[in-house]
Specification:
The protein has 2 domains: about 150 residues, 3-Layer(aba) Sandwich (Rossmann fold), CATH 3.40.50; about 70 residues, no CATH class. The protein is about 35% helix and about 30% strand. It has 9 helices and 12 strands. Strands 6-7-8-3-9-10 form a 6-stranded mixed beta sheet, sandwiched between helices. α3 packs across α4, α3 packs parallel to α5 and α4 packs across α5. The longest helix has 17 residues.
C-alpha cells in the first residue's frame, strides 16, 4: 500500500556508517520507511544487510550518522522498551524445548525465547494468540509442539509471535530459509495477507533471492559493498541494470503477476555454443 509523504517515518537512517575492526561495513547509508510500506532489503552475501537490520531492530549503534526507530533516536532512548514495538522474524529461532505453537507465540509478549518462570498470560492474551494462529493458516494446531513442526509451520508461528505485541515495524530476516517451493509460497501468501490484516505495519524483508519477495512489496533498497546502489519504489529499483550492478553479474530480472524472478543473462557466445551443442 502507498503511504503519504507527510507521514512521520517509522524508520530513518541518515548517512549511517559502521566500522568494525578498522573495516568499513556500511558507508553513509540512508533509508526512510513509513507506515504501511513494505520494503525489500536486497544484496549479495556480505553486502551489509544484516548490519542494517541490526539498526532497524535497535540492536546496533552506528559509528556515525543517526538512526531513528519509531521516532526515537538510538543513543537517546531505552532500547528494551523500544524493541517491544518491533516484531522480528528470524527463521533461525534458537528454541530448543518442545513448546507448543501457542506458547511460542505468547513469548512474543515477553520478548524471550522460553516462557519466563512465574509468568502466566492473561486470558485475552491467549485468545489473541489463538486468533493470530488461526489467521496465519495454523488453525487447529495451537497445541502442536515446536520439534514436530515443518519449517513452513515454524515460519508462520514466528510471524504470529512477532505480531502479538502489535508492533509498528516488522522485520523479516530471510524468512524463506530452509523452505521447499510449496512451503515458501505458502509463507509468502501469509506475508501478503498482512497488508490486509495489519495495514499500518511497516515491514522490511531481507533476502538475496528475488523469487522470495512477496507480491505486496512496495519499496526496495539494493546494497552492495556496504553502500546503497538504488532505493525507492520496487518497480524502479528491482531492474536488470540495478541488480546486475549490485551483484556484479549479468542478470535478467522479470516482473510478472506481481512477482519477481532472476536468471543469468546469456550472452551471444553462450547462445551460439548452445546452438552448436543442439
Amino acid at each position: 500500500m502507498s503511504a503519504s509523504t507527510i507521514t512521520p517515518p517509522v524508520l530513518d537512517l541518515d548517512h549511517v556508517s559502521f566500522v568494525r575492526g578498522g573495516v568499513t561495513i556500511l558507508d553513509r547509508v540512508s533509508l526512510t520507511v513509513r507506515a504501511g510500506e513494505h520494503w525489500a532489503l536486497l544484496g549479495p552475501n556480505g553486502a551489509g544487510k544484516s548490519t542494517i537490520l541490526g539498526f532497524c531492530a535497535a540492536m546496533t549503534h552506528p559509528t556515525s550518522g543517526t538512526v531513528e526507530v519509531l521516532g526515537a533516536r538510538l543513543g537517546r532512548v531505552e532500547l528494551q522498551s523500544l524493541r517491544q514495538s518491533i516484531g522480528h522474524v528470524n527463521p533461525r529461532h534458537p528454541l530448543q524445548s518442545p513448546l507448543s505453537i501457542r506458547e511460542v507465540v505468547l513469548t512474543g509478549l515477553t520478548g524471550t525465547i522460553q516462557t519466563p518462570m512465574r509468568w502466566e498470560p492473561q486470558s485475552d492474551e491467549i485468545r489473541h494468540a489463538e486468533q493470530l494462529i488461526d489467521s496465519l493458516g495454523l488453525a487447529g494446531k495451537a497445541d502442536a509442539r515446536w520439534p514436530n513442526l515443518s519449517q513452513g509451520e515454524r515460519g508462520r508461528a514466528l510471524i504470529a509471535r512477532a505480531l502479538i505485541a502489535e508492533p509498528r515495524l516488522l522485520l523479516l530476516d530471510e524468512p524463506s530459509t530452509g523452505l521447499d517451493v510449496a512451503a515458501r509460497e505458502q509463507l509468502l501468501e501469509t506475508i501478503d495477507l498482512l497488508d490486509e490484516t495489519h495495514p499500518e505495519v511497516a515491514s522490511i524483508l531481507v533476502t538475496h533471492h528475488l523469487e522470495e519477495l512477496p507480491s505486496t512489496t512496495t519499496h526496495a533498497v539494493l546494497i552492495s559493498h556496504g553502500r546503497v546502489m538504488a532505493t525507492g519504489p520496487a518497480s524502479a529499483v528491482i531492474t536488470s541494470e540495478n541488480v546486475t550492478a549490485a551483484f556484479e553479474h549479468p542478470i535478467d530480472v522479470e516482473h510478472r503477476d506481481q512477482r519477481w524472478s532472476a536468471r543469468t543473462r546469456r550472452n551471444r557466445h553462450s547462445r551460439e555454443a548452445s546452438e552448436l551443442v543442439a
